[in-house]
Amino acid sequence: MSANAPSNVFPVLASAAEVKRRSEQAAARGGVPSLAFGPTLAMVLVIEDGEKLTWVDAAALDALDTLYGIDAEDPFALARENLRARTARPLPRKAIANGRDAWFVGHDDGLDSGRLLLHDLWRPLKEQLPGELLVRVPLRGVVLCCSNVPADMAFVDAVADRFVENAKGAGVVATPWIAWTEEGWAEIEIEA
User: Fold this and answer.
1) CA–CA separation, 37 vs 111, rounded Å?
2) Which residues, in sequence order, are bridge partners of residue 52?
3) How far apart are CA 68 and CA 5, in angstroms?
4) Nearest 5 degrees, angle CA 118-CA 119-CA 123?
5) Which of 13, 74, 132, 191 could connect to 148 by a Cys-Cys bridge, CB 3.0–4.6 Å?
């Protein structure tokens, strides 16, 4: 990869349904490259231009490869490097509400869902919790987390639902619960 590779290419999380829809729309340009992140989720590449994030389709990825030699086997390598360089350690978090073990995690830069690819950066947060580290991603730029305490999970569910309702479709991911494990992240079913 070229030393002057673009520093504005990043990964973000999307629903598999949105990736499919956008790939169909971009079929003439080769679809949308994605990295499976679970049964219903995928990471996609975006180019950041100011506050705007533009999805990278296959034709744009080919152009980046031609210009900068981006690894065709792992087009997400550059995006991960860029995001890691822009991510504070430890991951910043702020309480959603007083008296709750539930937090917003990230930088509030629209790229927080992509930081799930930086699995090692989540370990310190996991080690501070009494149980599992669980995450919901209602929007690409919003990551909510808590432990597997039922009251906190119900609270985070309600907050995630409000984000989705207020977004009116823009940037919605609306993930199921995702659990941090030693091997990576795993979508999980929560029994009611």
Assistant:
1) 16
2) 49
3) 5
4) 125
5) 132
Query: At 107, which amino acid appears?
Result: H
The answer for residues whose C-beta is within 8 angstroms of residue 189's C-beta and 6 or more apart is 176, 177
The DSSP output letter for 91 is: P
Q: Cα 61 vs. chain centroid, distance in angstroms?
A: 19
Q: Residue 79: helix, strand or coil by DSSP?
A: helix
* Claim: this prediction has a pTM higher than 0.70: yes
Question: In the numeric block, which tokens belong to residue 135?
Answer: 């995450």
H helix intervals, the chain: 16-25, 58-68, 76-85, 123-127, 150-167
3-state secondary structure of 118: coil
95: number of Cβ within 10 Å: 11
As a whole number, the mean pLDDT across the chain is 92
Q: Tell me the CB-side half-sphere exposure of residue 180, using CA atoms within 13 A.
A: 25
Integer Cα distance of 43 and 132 in angstroms? 23
Q: Could you write out the three-class secondary structure of 138-184?
A: EECCEEEEEECCHHHHHHHHHHHHHHHHHHCCCCECCCCEEEEECCE
